Each structure stands twice: as C-alpha cells, then as structure tokens.
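Posting for a labmate who doesn't have an account.
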Amino acid sequence: MANLNLNIKHYVYKKRPIVILTLLLFALFIAYLWNFIVIIIHSGEGGVMYRLFFGGTVINKVYGEGIHIIFPWDRLHIYNCRVQEVAHEMHVLTKNGLKIDLQISIRFYPEYNLLGVLHKNVGPNYVSTVIIPEIESVLRIIIGKIDAEEVYTTKTSLIEEALNDAIEQVAQRFIHIDDVIIKKMILPKDVEKAIQYKIEKKHLANAHDYIIEREKKEATRRHIEAESLADYNKILSESIDKNTILWKGIDASIELSKSNNSKVVIVGGGNHGLPIFGSLLLDAQDNKIMNSISAMSEMPLTSIKSIEMNSDINQIK
C-alpha cells in the first residue's frame, strides 16, 4: 500500500506539467460554459426547460426562482411573469376614409402555469406575434365601420366592447391582458375643428333651450304667486272689519303713550278720540270730519271766513 501511494506521487510529480495544464483547461471550460450551466431565475420570473436529448420542451413543469444547474446543451428560457406594459402607435381609417392616429397602451402578463405551452406554441416573442396584431386588427375593423365624428364623441363604448372581444381571443393563447388603454386619438386638424365647432353649437342650442324652459317655469311660478297673493288679500279684506281696526288703533295709542320720545299727537275729533295716524280714519265720524277738512283746505280764504261767520251766527242764535 505504501509502495502504491509512493508510485502515484512519483507519477504525479513526473507528469506535473500535464496535470496542471489539464486542470487549467477544465477550469477554462467551466468558466466558458458557466452561463450555460448555472442559470439564475430572478423574482417575478419563470423558466421553461428545453432538453436537447430528452424530449425537447418540458411543458408540465415551470422552473421557479433561484439557481438551477443544467447541462450545457440544454436551455432554460426565462419569462417575465409580472404585469407588463407595451406602447403601440397605429393608423386606422374610418368609414368615410379619414385617417386616425392611435396611441394605445396594453397591460398584460403570461399565465405562469402555462409557460411551457406558451413557449412551445407561440414563443418568447408573443407580444409582437399575438398581442399587438390581435388588438390592432380589432381596432381597424371596428373603427372602419363608424364615422370620424362617432369615433370622436359617442362610439367609444363600441371600441371598448371590441377590445374586450380581442382580450378574450388573446386569452386563448395563454396570455392574460389586464387592459387596453387608448392614450391618444389624433384626427386631421380640419376635421377635428369642424367636429368641435359642431359640438359647441349643439351645446349652445341646448343651453338656449334650457334658458327658455327655465323662463317658462319662472313665469308659471310668478303666476301662481300672484294668484296666491290675490286670494290672500281677498281673504284678509273680508276678515278685517271696523272693530278690528278700532282695536288696533287702541293698541297703537297705548304703545305710543309708553314711548319716552318727544312727540306731537293729533287727537281725533270723532266719537272715540283716537290719534290720527297719517291718513288712517278709524270711524265713520272721523271720515266725515276729515272729508270736510280736506274740502276746506281746497276752498278760497274768503269762503272759509264766510263759513266761520255763519257758524258764529248760528251759535249766537
């Protein structure tokens, strides 16, 4: 045994340059093939194995995150399984032949458990192979059936429904589409100005109709208010009589007597002796007196003197 070990050491020592060269070549070989042997799958990714000698694409297993060591002749294809976004610009024609520039954004992600099937049937370039052509085809078909004004205003719901149909068709290709967003829709400038002018005039006409309807309702409201006031005045005039006015005059006289301010009170000469408030007459006697006073104020001074003399003569008699 000791002799065997000694012989091995002697052989290695004798072949030392060849052994060192062999180890260096093996190390260089490993370093060269390192990226093909040691595969790192990062967070949010999945791998699909292709075996050169053992059946090709593995569709029943998805390689998860971490380090994987494979044979250098095999390949581990890595897919991004997170939600991704791709922007796309396209030109479409409307029903009347006008060109519209569209800028869309598509959010999508591949089905994780079906990465093997996706890789085998579609491939890594599934975005440009399936998603964009399918969405673009649907938009061209649906916009080609409507006018430019309808695209600009009222037919966006039709576009959304068509995009939903496209999403369902893409889902059959093992890809999930979250949403398709139309970021910008550019019409020819002349057409856009004409559409905007038409929309402004339409809204202006609607505003005038609203104003007319509002004025009609205001007129109806005023008419109802006037009728209510007329009914109120009629009921009030029927409910107020001479005694009510006399009672209010007594209350006013009491409140006036409580005031500390200086005042001049003209006491009526009628049956009740109440103060005179402006032109308010409290009884029939007061009405007669005030009518005679008003008549005397309009007569000439000589006539008033003759009336006073006749009154004095009657008193002497």
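Reply:
Got it, the structure tokens are right above this. The beta strands are 38-41, 45-51, 56-57, 66-69, 75-80, 84-93, 99-110, 175-186.
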